[in-house]
Amino acid sequence: MSAETILETQGLTKEFKGFVAVNNVDLKVRRGDIHALIGPNGAGKTTFFNLLTKFLPPTRGTITYRGVDITHERPAQTARRGIVRSFQISAVFPHLTAMENVRAALQRNLGTSFHFWKPEKSLHHLHGRAMELLATVDLQDFADELTVNLPYGRKRALELATTMALEPDLMLLDEPTQGMGHEDVHRVTQLIKKVSEGRTILMVEHNMNVVSSIADRITVLQRGAVIADGPYAEVSKNPQVIEAYMGAADTELQGAH
Protein backbone atom coordinates (compact mmCIF):
# COMPACT_ATOMS: atom_id res chain seq x y z
CA MET A 1 0.00 0.00 0.00
CA SER A 2 1.27 3.41 -0.93
CA ALA A 3 1.93 5.64 2.06
CA GLU A 4 1.02 8.73 0.04
CA THR A 5 -0.87 11.29 2.13
CA ILE A 6 -4.16 12.26 0.45
CA LEU A 7 -5.46 14.56 3.21
CA GLU A 8 -3.54 16.47 5.85
CA THR A 9 -4.50 18.98 8.50
CA GLN A 10 -1.93 21.09 10.35
CA GLY A 11 -2.79 22.96 13.53
CA LEU A 12 -6.49 22.84 12.64
CA THR A 13 -8.41 24.74 15.31
CA LYS A 14 -12.01 25.85 15.76
CA GLU A 15 -13.08 28.12 18.60
CA PHE A 16 -16.64 29.16 19.44
CA LYS A 17 -16.69 32.23 21.71
CA GLY A 18 -13.78 31.02 23.79
CA PHE A 19 -14.70 27.31 23.68
CA VAL A 20 -12.12 25.30 21.73
CA ALA A 21 -14.01 22.53 19.87
CA VAL A 22 -11.07 21.42 17.70
CA ASN A 23 -7.66 22.07 19.17
CA ASN A 24 -4.54 22.20 17.02
CA VAL A 25 -5.24 18.92 15.17
CA ASP A 26 -2.49 17.46 12.98
CA LEU A 27 -3.90 14.55 10.98
CA LYS A 28 -2.58 12.60 8.00
CA VAL A 29 -4.82 10.28 6.00
CA ARG A 30 -3.02 7.89 3.65
CA ARG A 31 -4.45 7.10 0.24
CA GLY A 32 -6.31 3.77 0.24
CA ASP A 33 -6.70 3.55 4.02
CA ILE A 34 -9.82 3.21 6.12
CA HIS A 35 -8.98 5.79 8.79
CA ALA A 36 -11.23 5.98 11.87
CA LEU A 37 -11.72 9.08 13.98
CA ILE A 38 -12.88 8.08 17.45
CA GLY A 39 -13.37 9.71 20.83
CA PRO A 40 -15.94 10.21 23.58
CA ASN A 41 -19.01 12.40 23.03
CA GLY A 42 -18.05 16.06 22.74
CA ALA A 43 -14.54 15.21 21.55
CA GLY A 44 -14.88 17.42 18.45
CA LYS A 45 -15.26 14.70 15.79
CA THR A 46 -18.30 16.18 14.02
CA THR A 47 -16.87 19.72 14.20
CA PHE A 48 -13.68 18.35 12.61
CA PHE A 49 -15.75 16.83 9.76
CA ASN A 50 -17.56 20.17 9.36
CA LEU A 51 -14.19 21.89 8.94
CA LEU A 52 -13.07 19.36 6.31
CA THR A 53 -16.25 19.83 4.26
CA LYS A 54 -16.23 23.63 4.71
CA PHE A 55 -19.51 23.80 6.62
CA LEU A 56 -17.44 25.73 9.16
CA PRO A 57 -14.40 27.98 8.64
CA PRO A 58 -11.41 27.16 10.87
CA THR A 59 -10.16 29.69 13.42
CA ARG A 60 -6.65 28.78 12.29
CA GLY A 61 -4.67 25.94 10.71
CA THR A 62 -4.61 24.43 7.24
CA ILE A 63 -6.29 21.63 5.28
CA THR A 64 -4.32 20.15 2.38
CA TYR A 65 -5.87 17.70 -0.09
CA ARG A 66 -3.58 15.97 -2.60
CA GLY A 67 -0.95 18.62 -1.97
CA VAL A 68 -3.30 21.58 -2.56
CA ASP A 69 -4.28 23.98 0.23
CA ILE A 70 -8.09 23.87 0.31
CA THR A 71 -8.53 25.59 3.71
CA HIS A 72 -10.56 28.52 2.39
CA GLU A 73 -12.42 26.89 -0.48
CA ARG A 74 -16.21 26.91 -0.67
CA PRO A 75 -18.00 23.60 0.08
CA ALA A 76 -18.94 23.02 -3.58
CA GLN A 77 -15.32 23.42 -4.72
CA THR A 78 -14.15 20.89 -2.16
CA ALA A 79 -16.90 18.44 -3.15
CA ARG A 80 -15.85 18.75 -6.81
CA ARG A 81 -12.35 17.64 -5.81
CA GLY A 82 -13.84 14.27 -4.82
CA ILE A 83 -14.40 14.70 -1.08
CA VAL A 84 -17.93 13.42 -0.39
CA ARG A 85 -19.58 13.18 3.01
CA SER A 86 -22.27 10.78 4.07
CA PHE A 87 -24.33 12.24 6.92
CA GLN A 88 -25.29 10.78 10.28
CA ILE A 89 -28.93 11.14 9.31
CA SER A 90 -29.88 9.15 6.24
CA ALA A 91 -29.49 11.47 3.25
CA VAL A 92 -31.76 9.74 0.73
CA PHE A 93 -35.13 10.68 -0.76
CA PRO A 94 -37.73 8.59 1.14
CA HIS A 95 -40.41 8.62 -1.57
CA LEU A 96 -38.18 7.57 -4.45
CA THR A 97 -37.22 3.96 -5.07
CA ALA A 98 -33.72 2.73 -4.31
CA MET A 99 -32.98 2.78 -8.05
CA GLU A 100 -34.27 6.35 -8.43
CA ASN A 101 -32.14 7.53 -5.53
CA VAL A 102 -28.95 6.14 -7.06
CA ARG A 103 -29.93 7.47 -10.47
CA ALA A 104 -30.47 10.96 -9.00
CA ALA A 105 -26.95 10.83 -7.57
CA LEU A 106 -25.56 9.70 -10.95
CA GLN A 107 -27.40 12.59 -12.65
CA ARG A 108 -25.85 14.98 -10.15
CA ASN A 109 -22.43 13.66 -11.07
CA LEU A 110 -23.16 14.21 -14.77
CA GLY A 111 -24.25 17.76 -14.05
CA THR A 112 -27.77 17.06 -15.32
CA SER A 113 -29.59 17.24 -11.99
CA PHE A 114 -31.79 20.09 -13.17
CA HIS A 115 -33.09 18.16 -16.16
CA PHE A 116 -36.07 16.77 -14.25
CA TRP A 117 -38.35 17.95 -17.05
CA LYS A 118 -36.67 15.51 -19.43
CA PRO A 119 -38.64 12.36 -20.34
CA GLU A 120 -38.05 9.35 -18.08
CA LYS A 121 -36.59 7.30 -20.93
CA SER A 122 -33.71 9.75 -21.32
CA LEU A 123 -32.42 8.45 -17.96
CA HIS A 124 -32.41 4.81 -19.00
CA HIS A 125 -28.73 4.95 -19.91
CA LEU A 126 -28.03 5.35 -16.18
CA HIS A 127 -29.90 2.15 -15.28
CA GLY A 128 -26.95 -0.16 -15.81
CA ARG A 129 -24.56 1.81 -13.61
CA ALA A 130 -27.27 2.31 -10.96
CA MET A 131 -27.90 -1.45 -10.83
CA GLU A 132 -24.14 -2.09 -10.52
CA LEU A 133 -23.96 0.28 -7.55
CA LEU A 134 -27.01 -1.30 -5.91
CA ALA A 135 -25.42 -4.74 -6.38
CA THR A 136 -22.21 -3.49 -4.74
CA VAL A 137 -24.18 -2.85 -1.53
CA ASP A 138 -26.41 -5.95 -1.88
CA LEU A 139 -29.53 -3.96 -2.75
CA GLN A 140 -30.16 -5.35 -6.24
CA ASP A 141 -33.35 -7.07 -4.99
CA PHE A 142 -34.63 -3.78 -3.54
CA ALA A 143 -34.22 -1.65 -6.69
CA ASP A 144 -37.95 -0.94 -7.09
CA GLU A 145 -38.71 -0.64 -3.36
CA LEU A 146 -39.63 2.80 -2.02
CA THR A 147 -36.81 3.96 0.24
CA VAL A 148 -39.24 4.80 3.06
CA ASN A 149 -40.07 1.06 3.28
CA LEU A 150 -36.47 -0.12 3.56
CA PRO A 151 -35.17 -1.30 6.96
CA TYR A 152 -32.77 1.16 8.60
CA GLY A 153 -29.60 -0.81 7.79
CA ARG A 154 -30.62 -1.07 4.13
CA LYS A 155 -31.22 2.71 4.01
CA ARG A 156 -27.64 3.23 5.18
CA ALA A 157 -26.44 0.80 2.49
CA LEU A 158 -28.40 2.83 -0.08
CA GLU A 159 -26.70 5.96 1.23
CA LEU A 160 -23.33 4.30 0.59
CA ALA A 161 -24.44 3.53 -2.98
CA THR A 162 -25.53 7.15 -3.60
CA THR A 163 -22.25 8.41 -2.13
CA MET A 164 -20.31 6.08 -4.45
CA ALA A 165 -22.35 7.35 -7.44
CA LEU A 166 -20.56 10.68 -6.97
CA GLU A 167 -17.26 8.82 -7.54
CA PRO A 168 -15.46 10.18 -4.49
CA ASP A 169 -11.72 9.80 -3.97
CA LEU A 170 -12.25 10.38 -0.28
CA MET A 171 -15.44 9.27 1.48
CA LEU A 172 -16.21 10.88 4.84
CA LEU A 173 -18.58 8.60 6.74
CA ASP A 174 -20.25 10.12 9.80
CA GLU A 175 -21.34 7.39 12.26
CA PRO A 176 -22.21 4.86 9.51
CA THR A 177 -23.50 2.20 11.96
CA GLN A 178 -25.25 4.46 14.46
CA GLY A 179 -28.61 3.14 15.69
CA MET A 180 -28.23 -0.28 14.05
CA GLY A 181 -28.84 -3.75 15.40
CA HIS A 182 -25.99 -6.27 15.47
CA GLU A 183 -26.87 -7.90 12.13
CA ASP A 184 -27.07 -4.57 10.29
CA VAL A 185 -23.82 -3.37 11.88
CA HIS A 186 -22.05 -6.48 10.58
CA ARG A 187 -23.53 -6.09 7.09
CA VAL A 188 -22.70 -2.37 6.80
CA THR A 189 -19.18 -2.95 8.18
CA GLN A 190 -18.56 -5.51 5.43
CA LEU A 191 -20.01 -3.11 2.84
CA ILE A 192 -17.66 -0.32 3.97
CA LYS A 193 -14.73 -2.71 3.58
CA LYS A 194 -15.97 -3.66 0.11
CA VAL A 195 -16.54 -0.08 -1.11
CA SER A 196 -13.16 1.03 0.27
CA GLU A 197 -11.40 -0.80 -2.57
CA GLY A 198 -9.81 1.85 -4.76
CA ARG A 199 -10.77 4.77 -2.50
CA THR A 200 -9.93 6.31 0.84
CA ILE A 201 -12.33 6.43 3.78
CA LEU A 202 -12.25 8.66 6.83
CA MET A 203 -14.98 7.70 9.27
CA VAL A 204 -16.30 8.85 12.62
CA GLU A 205 -17.45 5.71 14.44
CA HIS A 206 -18.44 4.87 18.03
CA ASN A 207 -18.57 1.10 17.66
CA MET A 208 -15.16 -0.28 18.63
CA ASN A 209 -15.85 -3.68 17.08
CA VAL A 210 -16.35 -1.95 13.73
CA VAL A 211 -13.18 0.12 14.17
CA SER A 212 -11.03 -2.82 15.27
CA SER A 213 -12.21 -5.00 12.39
CA ILE A 214 -11.78 -2.64 9.42
CA ALA A 215 -9.70 0.45 10.28
CA ASP A 216 -6.10 0.59 9.04
CA ARG A 217 -5.40 3.56 11.27
CA ILE A 218 -7.13 5.30 14.16
CA THR A 219 -6.95 8.85 15.48
CA VAL A 220 -8.40 9.48 18.95
CA LEU A 221 -9.73 12.91 19.87
CA GLN A 222 -10.47 14.09 23.38
CA ARG A 223 -11.70 17.63 24.12
CA GLY A 224 -10.83 18.58 20.55
CA ALA A 225 -7.20 17.43 20.68
CA VAL A 226 -5.44 14.31 19.34
CA ILE A 227 -4.42 12.02 22.19
CA ALA A 228 -3.36 9.00 20.09
CA ASP A 229 -2.82 8.00 16.47
CA GLY A 230 -1.80 4.65 14.97
CA PRO A 231 -3.02 1.10 14.33
CA TYR A 232 -5.82 -0.26 16.55
CA ALA A 233 -3.57 -2.71 18.44
CA GLU A 234 -1.32 0.15 19.51
CA VAL A 235 -3.99 2.78 20.20
CA SER A 236 -6.24 0.47 22.25
CA LYS A 237 -3.40 -0.12 24.74
CA ASN A 238 -2.68 3.59 25.19
CA PRO A 239 -3.38 4.53 28.85
CA GLN A 240 -4.73 7.96 27.85
CA VAL A 241 -7.19 6.35 25.44
CA ILE A 242 -8.34 3.81 28.03
CA GLU A 243 -8.86 6.63 30.51
CA ALA A 244 -10.84 8.67 27.93
CA TYR A 245 -13.14 5.68 27.48
CA MET A 246 -13.64 4.99 31.19
CA GLY A 247 -16.68 3.03 32.31
CA ALA A 248 -18.84 1.21 29.78
CA ALA A 249 -16.89 2.48 26.78
CA ASP A 250 -13.65 1.30 28.38
CA THR A 251 -14.83 -2.30 28.55
CA GLU A 252 -16.07 -1.90 24.99
CA LEU A 253 -12.60 -0.78 23.93
CA GLN A 254 -10.97 -3.74 25.67
CA GLY A 255 -13.62 -6.18 24.51
CA ALA A 256 -13.07 -5.41 20.84
CA HIS A 257 -9.65 -7.07 20.70
Automatic annotation (TrEMBL):
Molecular function via GO: ATP binding
Domain of life from the UniProt record: Bacteria
ABC transporter domain mapped to chain residues: 7-248
Pfam hit, one: ABC_tran
Keyword ATP-binding: yes
InterPro entries on file: AAA+_ATPase (IPR003593), ABC_AA/LPS_Transport (IPR051120), ABC_transporter-like_ATP-bd (IPR003439), BCA_ABC_TP_C (IPR032823), P-loop_NTPase (IPR027417)
Keywords: ATP-binding, Cell membrane, Membrane, Nucleotide-binding, Transport
PROSITE patterns reported for this sequence: ABC_TRANSPORTER_2
Name under which the protein is recorded: ABC transporter ATP-binding protein
Lineage: Bacteria, Pseudomonadati, Pseudomonadota, Betaproteobacteria, Burkholderiales
